[in-house]
Amino acid sequence: MIREPFNDGWRVCGRTSIFEQMATGGAAEAVAVTLPHDAMLAGGRSPDGSDGSHTGYHRPGAWRYDKDFEVPASWASKRVTIEFEGVYRDAMVYINDAFAGQWAGGYSTFHIAADPYLRYGQANTIRVEAQAHKDSRWYSGGGIHRPVHLLIGDLLHITPTGLRVTTPQIDDELAVAAVAVEVINEGTGTRTVDVLVEVRDGDGEIVATDHAPLTVLAGERATVRKRAYIRHPALWSVEEPNLYTATVRLTGADGQVDEARTTFGIRSVSVDPIRGLRINGATVKLRGACVHHDNGPLGSAAIARAEERRVQLLKDAGFNAIRSAHNPLSTAMLEACDRLGMLVMDETFDMWTIGKTDDDYARRFPQWWERDVDALVAKDFNHPSVIFYSIGNEILEAGTPHGARWGRLLAERIRAQDPTRLVTNALNGMMAILDQIPALMAQAQVSGEPAAEGGFNDMLDGMGALIALPEVGERIAESAAVLDVVGLNYGDSRYLIDQEAYPNRVVVGSETFPTLIDRYWKLVTEHGHIIGDFTWTGWDYLGESGIGRPTYPGEPASFGAPYPWLTASTGDLDITGRRRPVSYYREIVYGLRPTPYLAVQRPEHREHPFQPKGWAWSDSIASWTWDVPAGTPVRVEAYADADEIEFVLNGTTAAKVPVGTGKAFLATADLPYQPGTLEAVAYRGGAESGRCRLLTAAEPARLRLTPDRPHISTDPQDLAYIDICLVDEHGTINPISDRTVTIHLDGPATLQALGTARPSTEEPFQAASRTTYEGHALAVLRPTGAEGPVTVTARADGLPPATVTIDLRHPGHTVSATTTRHEPARS
């Protein structure tokens, strides 16, 4: 089926009932948008947002999307399907005002058969309704947040998910690509076609081909299976993500009937408690990042370039694996993981039959779980990056017999469709013993009262002792038994206990505290049955506001922070993609960074220095520019794989400190602040092994604009990211003299977002002005479809204007035939 983008020309407004429209004189005014789009982001925030800090104080809503489109008369003999990659949530689809289909879940791809409702040779309309209200524990966004496609094909065609490739046999000389093609004949007569299978390598060269005739009765589905033999295969791995393309063409007496194409990788996956996880026979330890689905300033809109950029920056920071939390990844992100070499744990649900919020997916789960599981497998099947399916996250009923039964149903549903991948479940032992926690805490002598200086993150210190209790192991035993790999959230205290009790069990830290990566990684590297660690989180996110904030005396010690807090403030990378100090510490723990890293705790809190705990790293940034008097004591931190650190202030040794005294890979010292140069010099065996330097910045002299790329595509699924920073006359960033920056564009692009990583703010991402945070802001440009230069001008009071130009160029390809996606849902 020919697959065309269906993302332009949409309008969105708040959804109102017919009775409200009668009372107010009409529907709400619609705004033109290009998909993907997040309707909730435009609705703004308020202290009384639907679920408070959980959703970042964003307002709930119900929305209506409309689009007019032409349907040629020639399509009357075709099959027309509309593919939605994700609508949040409870999508209702109408074509020419007739109900055409629905989908309850907010993250699944689904298909709507359009034919019965179309007016051929005329203008047509499509309407999509969605809503979000107290149904998520984080910022969900709302509306059509993933792309939409129009599929047009012959009545005899390959189904949207009908091309699937596995690689059951691999060695250095030969690989077998097993190609399965599902064809459906929706015509009224029997038809015979020739099925041609063609495999090309990354250079576009044909490496295997085969064909066979196929006869399909009217109304029948048929599956063709061919085995392509690829000599000297280039394997897919994190280090070398080699991809192949499989193309299938159906040809009848009158010429080509249909075509489908998909990329795939040749790689093997195995796991055992001795050698751990192996990709292509080589052991791989997972350096994992949990990620939510939002794109920071873009909200939940899964624009392809935004998804790719996240994968690239996470890989640059040392990660080799992503866990989708807690819903299936977008297709665009999976495609980026395939291209860039990132392993994926793709997750299904955050709840099954027991809800976690007032109106979440638990109310739909019993009727919809099979369709959503099928949609996940269909989306992921050909992506070599996907090595795990996770059937849930911290499922409340997982510690019960009936919960274990549900887990078995989900796991077997997946295995029946895709036996080539591993099945896991992110189990949290605390959830298994919620009814016993008061008594068990007393028994284990674990205090639940937060210390004044640590707030909520101090409460988390007791989790390990509770999860290690025998009662937890007993309650999760059956749920764990249905899995190939047991995911444990914050369950490192069970790693070695369970090795003794269940010697055949393989475990992964499916969600862990970022502050304890030194301890976790030692366990991972020393034990074969522990295959990796996924930190919470790799990328900061909207909602669960302030769970990773340092809390000081006199501040509330609650789970979330008060309005106007916005972000969780717990990612290795902030919501704009800049690395935070914990990211460099992790990179050193992984053994990927040979040089030290230097950070400084904020001197305004010098009387209460904050140590890493729970989700909160120390309150530090990489800066030696502070608005405090000279001589003020400040705490400096150096992260290094070294024996000792020498802190050198303006050329003079200020302190020499051993590394790892209080925490592995960390050295700290209290120094008097003096403007100038601060260096951390690392020593191993008495010899210098690396150094890091911070410079004091003068007052900002100009704005510096740095685009991520000099030119981009005209495709609205592409984006340009421009880093805006305040620098002094020598180019040093000043993080303490923030200014309001205003952006103006001239050319065929729009300002999609302007944001910073400031965790607490009332400034919206959609405005053209924004106050910098620690000297930085980020502008995101989206093409409107035309070629030409786009000039970006930034202005701030007291500084000269700064400009940068980005070229927009037409992509050098035409619309291709469909890749395989989901089976049309005839609902």
From TrEMBL:
InterPro entries referenced in this protein's UniProt entry, alphabetically: Beta-gal/glucu_dom_sf, DUF4982, Galactose-bd-like_sf, GH, GH2_Domain-Containing, Glyco_hydro2_dom5, Glyco_hydro_2, Glyco_hydro_2_cat
Domain Glycoside hydrolase family: 703-805
Family membership: Belongs to the glycosyl hydrolase 2 family.
GO BP terms: carbohydrate metabolic process
Record keywords, A-Z: Glycosidase, Hydrolase
Domain Glycoside hydrolase family 2 catalytic: residue ranges: 277-437
Residue stretches making up the Glycoside hydrolase family 2 immunoglobulin-like beta-sandwich domain: 166-267
One Pfam family from the record: DUF4982
Source organism: Thermocatellispora tengchongensis
Record protein name field: Glycoside hydrolase family 2 protein
Domain DUF4982, residue spans: 631-688
Keyword Hydrolase: yes
Molecular function, one GO term: hydrolase activity, hydrolyzing O-glycosyl compounds
